[in-house]
Design a protein that fits this description.
Oligomer: single chain
Helix content: 40-55%
Shape: globular
Structural class: alpha/beta
Bound molecules: 6-O-phosphono-beta-D-fructofuranose
Number of strands: 13
Strand order of the largest sheet: 1-2-13-12-10-11
Number of helices: 22
Strand content: 5-15%
Distance between the termini: 58 Å
Mean pLDDT: 97
């Protein structure tokens, strides 16, 4: 960032501040009345994804200034640096090259002088071969039975992407097979996931970039015990019932998994950006290699759109800039993501790691304290369920919560009038949020005076609506890439390292220190604060009462 002014000193930033002062009271009602074409004009469409951003508290000037901010923040150069394989993850001295995971065969991306695209396709080929053998019954368990159950063991990026993708693409999955996902070190997760499974028909995929993660290693070890207990204790069974996805061949082999059954990836794939790497093995077994390739193609289409389109028509850039607008100029603290598609029920949870582990940072890439808010809290639930739960606060609470609504033209499970009702709710919610209901309208309905304030909707609550044809593997790839690059755009403006996650380390280290204190036979000498010491003593007493 040499030669670049700090964010808040940039001309466009100052212009945005002044502009916000002018338009912050401007109501969406007025904006829509003043411009009859706003609803069509303030939209963008690319690679089959339609974005209506007209119900945002922006004018043409706002958008022009935000695009200028992106220019002044060097977004274009940042994007090019990412796609060139430069080590843009400064604090870990690594490239962040998830875009290479979906680069078509025959293209070339160099990392340290080596073209990584052929390696990516070699792993995809091995995954496809394995997935076909499992799906077709050629891969047999220790007792000669085919595999019917697949259990992915992983956490964070080695779990959230696989679960989300499995749920999202269930419609395309092999329904004769069962897929489970175990992540929590809470033993209940593994016990519940395996209680009705036959070990002879069960395959575990131990997924961990580092193969050192406490939760995953503990679960994998207990899964091995469960397997051996169920299959008579012959350790040779492990080779037929465990495969690994990792970058760490040494640890995989130490665990007892044959590295011939290991699917690799690379340090330039961040955990939260890895669902389209070998970490997606469970997805590929579930939906088959062809659908997995369609997913990758969807990712790639959005990558190309992001890399080449002008900012003002660039979907991820627009989404990212609007998030910066509300976060930094309106003090919004959260973004709600509301998919009106039951298959996307885990999408908000997936996005939480993608967005918050990436941009939950308080220093710039140079290590200087930022003087402005960075990554907002992402959250959400599928519609219409959320409407009967937390939407009240979005409509009438005291906070500004920008929302992303996601809907599809076609239902994967057409059922009577359900889909029209579902989509009617998308449109109704965005309309209600934007325009609300005035005091006069409430009065005119004959509402008693004392109830009028309770029934007024002030409106002016912003939302984006993202529409696509139907949820296919390719659409899912496009949606995930849309958010990945929106996060990248935000990180580039805030000048944070969106690819490290040092904030997760302290708790991990402290837990390692506390585990022996909980487990020791002798009363341990505790050196924590008085609250932590007290709780450790209390827990030891409770567990000793067993
Ligand atoms: O603790 C956070 C984290 O490092 C994530 O970034 C990552 O996705 C997760 O842990 C799991 O890591 P691994 O794949 O190495 O087990």
């Amino acid at each position: 960032m040499t030669g670049m002014l700090p964010l808040t000193a940039r001309q466009s930033w100052k212009a945005l501040q002044a502009h916000q002062e002018k338009i912050r009271e401007l109501h969406l009602r007025t904006l829509f009345v003043d411009d009859a074409t706003r609803g069509e004009r303030m939209s963008a469409e690319a690679v089959g994804i339609y974005l209506d951003y007209s119900k945002n508290r922006v004018t043409d000037e706002t958008l022009a200034l935000l695009c200028r901010l992106a220019e002044e923040s060097g977004l274009r150069e940042r994007v090019d640096a990412m796609f060139r394989g430069e080590k843009i993850n400064l604090t870990e001295n690594r490239a962040a090259l998830h875009v290479a995971l979906r680069a078509p065969r025959g293209t070339s991306i160099l990392v340290d002088g080596t073209d990584v695209v052929p390696e990516v396709h070699a792993v995809l080929g091995a995954m496809a071969d394995f997935a076909n053998r499992v799906r077709g019954g050629a891969w047999k368990g220790h007792t000669g039975q085919p595999i019917r159950n697949v259990v992915n063991i992983g956490i964070g990026g080695s779990d959230l992407g696989p679960v989300m993708a499995y749920e999202a693409l269930k419609h395309y999955s092999d329904r004769a097979m069962t897929f489970r996902f175990v992540s929590n070190v809470d033993g209940t997760d593994l016990v519940e996931a395996t209680r009705d499974l036959d070990p002879a028909e069960t395959l575990f995929i131990a997924s961990s970039k580092t193969f050192t993660t406490l939760e995953t290693m503990t679960n994998a070890e207990s899964a091995r015990q469960w397997l051996l207990a169920g299959l008579g204790g012959d350790v040779k069974a492990v080779a037929k019932h465990f495969v690994a996805v990792s970058t760490n061949a040494r640890k995989v082999s130490e665990f007892g998994i044959d590295t011939a059954n290991m699917f690799g990836f690379w340090d330039w794939v961040g955990g939260r950006y890895s669902m389209d790497s070998a970490i997606g093995l469970s997805t590929m077994v579930a939906v088959g290699p062809e659908n997995f390739r369609a997913l990758l193609d969807g990712f790639h289409q959005m990558d190309e759109h992001f890399r080449t389109s002008p900012f003002e028509r660039n979907l991820p850039v627009l989404l990212g800039l609007l998030t910066v607008w509300y976060t930094d100029f309106f003090g919004a603290e959260t973004v709600a993501v509301l998919p009106y598609e039951q298959y996307l029920k885990r999408f908000p949870a997936y996005l939480q790691q993608l967005t918050m582990e990436s941009n939950g940072k308080h220093v710039t890439r140079e290590g200087v304290e930022v003087g402005y808010p960075t990554g907002p809290i992402y959250w959400g639930e599928p519609g219409t369920n959320g409407q009967h739960s937390f939407y009240q606060l979005i409509h009438q609470g005291t906070r500004l919560i920008p929302c992303d609504f996601i809907g599809f033209g076609y239902a994967l499970n057409p059922l009577g009038r359900h889909h029209d009702m579902l989509l009617a709710n998308v449109f109704a919610q965005t309309e209600a949020l934007a325009f609300g209901k005035t005091r006069e309208q409430v009065r005119a309905e004959g509402t008693p005076d004392r109830l009028v304030p309770h029934r007024v909707f002030e409106g002016n609550r912003p939302s984006n609506t993202i529409l696509a044809d139907r949820l296919t593997p390719a659409t899912l790839g496009k949606l995930v890439a849309l958010y990945e690059h929106s996060v990248f755009t935000q990180g580039a403006i805030w000048n944070v390292d969106s690819f490290d996650q040092w904030g997760v380390e302290l708790g991990k280290a402290l837990a390692q220190r506390i585990i022996p204190e909980l487990e020791s036979e002798k009363e341990p000498t505790l050196g924590h604060d008085s609250s932590t010491n007290n709780m450790i003593r209390r827990y030891r007493k409770l567990r000793n009462r067993r």
